[in-house]
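Would you be willing to look carefully at the protein I have copied below?

:::
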Amino acid sequence: MCRVVTYFRVSTEAQGRSGLGLEAQREAVARLVQSRGWQAVAEFTEVESGKRNDRPELSKALHRAKVTGSVLVVAKLDRLSRNVAFLATLQESGVRFLAADMPEANELTVHIMAAVAQEERKAIGRRTREALAAAKVEGKRLGNPNGAAALRRAAKGNAAAIETVKANAAGRAADYAPIVDDIRAGGATSLPAIARELNERGIVTPRGGQWHPSSVRNLLARMGA
């Protein structure tokens, strides 16, 4: 049975409090999951603009999907991002993902659609700049005294997003470390006990299989534990 991690996003706090937009996303994803007979193992919800890439709940969803061998499912592609570079990084992270509104699309299709969406955003930006340039020629006063600060904040956010995605893609041993630490803290310290607990929690090996004492030993060696 295919396991999935679901991710939902709304753009404003008001939408998050009211549930506006969330219910439609949940219904679309639920229909897909039920029709395919899949098992949803975790759900994450984010309140954040799609223009920003530094989203902690998305990072958590990606991590859970990686360590459980699950597919990340969203209602629509734009719930992830319209930024083609960000989507490409997600693809390279090794996490499979799909959108409920086009579940049959492959990664190439998703990449092309994201590229088209990004080009449209660029076109809108060009039209805006051209309109502002024309207004400036006509002598109209333009600008915002806080504009530069806003741009600096956006740049910092983008840099943080890149680092977050890199960290998510950085090595499976680091992904498993907090889970193993939690298992050990619960009293399971032998190799067979750790393997049994990992399997019971639904955590899969880097190759998507079951844990055995030997694979736990290799993991601990990579962790330096």
